[in-house]
């Protein structure tokens, strides 16, 4: 399993209120979600009028495809001309042995939470 994550630090230059910021961010998030198979959300700088941090996540099984997908999403966002990108940080993780639980593990966990 390959997981691509990206954080965009952005500036919204012509904005003068949190309401205006929410409008721009909502438009950006909705367009990315409708065009790409990716998770996207505002993850920081929530109370600043002209700044925001956007988190994006893509999951698949091919490193090159995940890298390409994140590059296309970032390019798409920049071409929307709603925001200015200040900083982009991207990381691609490969998980070769995902954690799994057995029925016995579930019973142990359930017993731990039901301790009285």
Q: Tell me about the biggest sheet?
A: 4 strands, antiparallel
The number of helices is: 3
CATH class (first level) name:
Alpha Beta
Q: If you consult CATH, what is the topology?
A: Alpha-Beta Plaits
Please characterize this protein's 3D structure.
With 116 residues, the chain is of the alpha+beta class. It is built from 3 helices and 4 strands. The protein has a 4-stranded antiparallel beta sheet, with helices on one face. Strand 2 and strand 3 (51-60) form a beta hairpin.
Nutshell version of this structure?
This protein has 116 residues and is of the alpha+beta class.
Summarize the SSE layout with pairings.
Elements: E1 2-11, H1 18-35, E2 39-44, E3 51-60, H2 63-79, E4 84-94, H3 103-113
Antiparallel strand pairs: 1-3, 1-4, 2-3
Notable characteristics:
116 residues; alpha+beta; Alpha-Beta Plaits; 3 helices
